[in-house]
Design goal:
Two copies of one chain form a homodimer. By secondary structure, chain A is mostly helical. Chain A has two domains: 14-67, Homeodomain-like (Arc Repressor Mutant, subunit A), CATH 1.10.10; 68-198, Orthogonal Bundle (Tetracycline Repressor, domain 2), CATH 1.10.357. Chain A is 63% helix and 0% strand. Chain A has helices at 15-31, 38-45, 49-55, 59-67, 82-98, 100-115, 124-140, 152-168, 170-173, 178-190. In chain A, helix 1 (15-31) packs across helix 4 and helix 7 packs across helix 8. The longest helix of chain A is centred in the N-terminal third of the chain and has 17 residues, at 15-31. The interface between A and B is large, with 46 and 46 residues.
Chain lengths: 198, 198
């Protein structure tokens, strides 16, 4: 009620969302996950904490939205070139996870999940929105280039795992150019095998 | 000096290690990662905190050793049956990560890594010891069953990712029988492709 009111009819201040999300990302990078509270975001963004609580139930949802907003649709629009499309998809996915604020938040969000009894952890939003984009890419691939017997969900899970590992255990994967290696692995999973995979 | 002394020559109390590791696992399950401190482990195990500090530099190393002790060698000894060996390997690996204490500790250890400047995070021990076991299995496979052009390290990274994802994002992978699916994916990665994977 009090966070806006610039004129007649109390227009909702639509900039609060953007300011809060930007302030959240800044605090995550500057002070870390634990220090990024609703109160500290409110102070940093110059808004009332009550305005944030009206938009996000807790700092967890706020941090999840600020750091994992979903893939850029333009970056993952399929062209029909399977390898090229996968390459852009993996790069966009990795970029989301390795942005400084996301890197600062990822492990904390996962730790919260482990102890939370919520049925649907907030940071799964990205996973959910990325999965159909991955399937769009496979559907756009030339006939015969994707084995029809392989489950796209299984391959997507492997890709998600490769990206999570890169983000959470950087020492394990820093030894080489990661995107091309991951694309190679995904191409192998998708390739028709002539019955080798039984 | 004072933590042992049952007889002449002050024999080191070798049970302290085991008692501390067991107490650590119990506290992780009962009270969670944050509450599992050197002091609380010392009280729970009935030993002096100083005896623990002589063995582990901090609670992080203690928790890592208690929860990720390495794979059971007998469970991953290769027999030459590639699919069967991979199945036992994945089961042993998943069992390590999904033990209640490991599940309670995994995200906290990863979160610690993200903020720690240590060059070598302690929980990578398991990864390091599992990687050569995986390579042993590939070496024991019948000739022609593993594509010589595929890098075992790349395949192992994919397997590690699949297991991490299952542990950290259980909602993402609970929908099916996981071990067999993961083994299928690894078999596809290893299978000779006749040049499809270029």
């Amino acid at each position: 009620m009090a966070d806006s009111g610039r004129g007649p009819g109390r227009p909702r201040d639509t900039t609060i969302n953007e300011r809060a999300l930007a302030a959240t990302r800044e605090l995550l990078v500057q002070r870390g996950f634990e220090a990024t509270t609703i109160q500290s975001v409110a102070e940093h963004a110059g808004v009332h904490a009550s305005a944030l609580y009206r938009r996000w139930p807790s700092r967890i949802e706020l941090i999840a939205e600020a750091t994992f907003p979903g893939l850029d649709q333009r970056a993952v629009e399929p062209t029909g070139d399977l390898r090229g499309d996968l390459h852009r998809f993996v790069r966009a996915y990795v970029a989301t996870f390795t942005a400084p604020a996301a890197r600062a938040a990822a492990a904390g969000l996962l730790a919260h999940n482990q102890t939370s009894s919520r049925p649907r952890p907030p940071e799964l939003n990205l996973r959910v929105s990325a999965r159909p984009r991955f399937q769009d890419i496979l559907r756009a691939a030339p006939p015969g280039s994707v084995d029809p017997t392989v489950d796209p969900d299984d391959v997507f899970d492997m890709l998600l795992g490769a990206i999570l590992t890169r983000v959470l255990l950087p020492a394990a994967t820093a030894r080489r150019t990661p995107v091309e290696r991951t694309v190679d692995m995904i191409m192998r999973l998708l390739a028709p095998t002539g019955g080798e995979g039984h």
